[in-house]
Amino acid sequence: MDHYSSEAAKTLVRTSPSKTFTIFEGTSEIQRLVIARTLTGLPVR
């Protein structure tokens, strides 16, 4: 069990940064959409 949990932890550490970047990229994409809609007068949903 210890071997499995340490391998799972290593995998989690390796994949966490990529998920974090995806979240940040999504956030800036949403911000761009909100700014563009505000500037063009379109409703912000």
From TrEMBL:
SUPFAM superfamilies: Acyl-CoA dehydrogenase C-terminal domain-like. One of its GO terms (molecular function) is oxidoreductase activity, acting on the CH-CH group of donors. It comes from Actinomadura syzygii. This is Acyl-CoA dehydrogenase. InterPro entries: AcylCo_DH-like_C. Gene3D superfamilies: Butyryl-CoA Dehydrogenase, subunit A, domain 3 (1.20.140.10). It comes from the Bacteria.
